[in-house]
Each structure stands twice: as structure tokens, then as C-alpha cells.
Predict the structure of Tail fiber protein.
Amino acid sequence: MNNNAVISNNAHQDNFFGELKRTRFQQFTSLPSTDGVPAGWIIDYNSQLHQWNGTEWVNLAQNYVHPDYPLTNNPFQTDQTSGLLLLSQILTNSSGHVIKIAGRNLTNADIVSIFLNDTTQSGTFTWSSNKIKTYIENLVGQSLTGALIYQPGGYIPSTAEGSMTAPAPVTSATIKTGMVWVITANGWVGNEPVSVGDHLIANTDNASNVPANYQIIEKGIPDIVDATDTVKGLIQIATDVEAITGTNSTKAMTPKSTKAVLDAKIKSKTWQIGDGSSVTFPITHGWNTLNVDFICYRNADNRKINVSCVPTSANDVQIDVLAPLTPNEYRITLTVRLD
């Protein structure tokens, strides 16, 4: 076998409960050194699994026979043909093993002890569905106090400065605090000019046509300014060169300039490897960096394969596998991000 074909995982490996297939434990004919080794290391020592517990090696091949503690009573081991059998007792020995189970049938007295009582709120009684419905409706109604209530139909203001047309309530017979109308025409609310899209909000009940009883919220659009990372406004398009340079903080990128950046900064190429005899494959990419990512697939079934990939220079990597590959058995894609 090719001893260079090694994948090093400098991290915990989580297989999400997947099965380990075609896997062997590391084999030893004498127990290895445990200097600096944490508890949990498992090896194959003379064809028997051993685990280092932090102090000594434990032979995992030793068999354990679970003791048998027959139950003295188990009413649940037969089918229940009538009533409702409840678990009423569990006994254990000093080792924590269950040695007795007891049960009893649910009686009428148990059932009638649970009854409706709509007049009180406690941990003893239960409410009817009508009581629950009323309670929830009242609770929701209280939570809506002070909420803004949209009034369909909009509001047409007065055309004369200094006067006001009373808005028409829709959700109630009279105007209530929090009612909101969307203004649908330009005009006046007293001495305040309003325009389409502004909002009129009643700040008291029975507000009538008194301007002081209303709050006006304007949709007003502010002066257009240059956009920043905190202010909406005008923006200029960056050139491809500016986008690639990446130092301009006042211009925006388009799909075209974004592609230019990706083409300039991200390099990727795929090679076919395998010649029927080799286990080592040098690849020259020419990107002048050691920070190369890779992904490898088997062409026959497009399965992802983990291989050893080591940069040997700023322009080359070496791929190592355990056994020779058939011609073009694998395809490997190298990718880098250039500064």
C-alpha cells in the first residue's frame, strides 16, 4: 500500500450516525505508548479490541452477562380486556433493577372527581369550551386596547384651508381612539396641508371634525442624497476594474462586475486522474498559492472520494491514493480564492 495516502483530520468527526463501512482499527502486536493520549482510544491488539481509559488498557473482548431479576408481580404481561389499568407501583433493588410492578384499574370515583366549574379559575377544576372561548375573546379584546384600527374607504380632506371634514368611522358607530384613515386626495386638515398617502389618526374618542383631535403622519419623501450603508439614496455603478480592486466604498456592483470579480478572484479547474498503475499524481495549476481547496469524485458513480491532496509548491499539488486507479477513474477539481 501507498503510505503517503493519509488524510489527517485535525478536528472531531461527526458522521451524523452514519455507518462505518470497510473500516479497520489500527493494529498493534504490542501496546503503543499512551503519552498525552486522552481516554477513549480504541485499537486492535493481537486481534482483540482494547480501549485506553486514561489509566490502563481495557480488553473490550471480555463478555458481560446481564443478571436476571424475575419480577414477582407484573400485571401488564397479559392483555387487559376491560377497564383502564394504571401503573401504581415500581420497586427496584439496590442495583436499580426493577423487581416488582403493580397496577390498579381506573374507577368511576377517579373519573367523577374531575368535573366542570365555570365559576372559578383553579388547578382543581376544568372549564367548558364556552367558558374558554369567552375568556380568550375578552383577553384578546383587552390586548387590542390602544391599537391602530384601519378604516376602509380612505379619507377625503377639505379643499379649504382652515376647515376640516370629519372622517367616517367604519368599524364602529362612532370615532374611537386609534382609528386610522389613509388620505386619498390633496387638501387640508385645519391649517395643515395633507396629500395622497398621508395617514389621519384619531387620538381621542368622538374626535368629530376638530383638527387638534387627530395626528397626521406624512408619507413625505426626504431629499434624495447619495446612498451610504445607513441612508437610502442615489448610487453609482462601479466599473469592472473598480469592482476587482475592491477599495471603492461609494459605488455598487452589477451582475457583470460581480462576474468579473469572481473570474478574477476565484480559479477552478478539473483534472482526470488514473492510469492503471500509479498511486501518486502530481498536478500543476499555476495559480501561485498554497491555499488550494479540492473535491474528488469517482466517475463511475459520481461518489465523492476523500484522497490525500498536499501542495508541493505554490503552483503544484500532489494527490495520493491507497491503490492504483484505473484510467481516468477519478476526477478532481482544484479551487482557489486569490487576494
Observations:
- The chain is about 10% helix and 30% strand.
- The chain has a mean pLDDT of 85.
- The two ends are 39 Å apart (CA to CA).
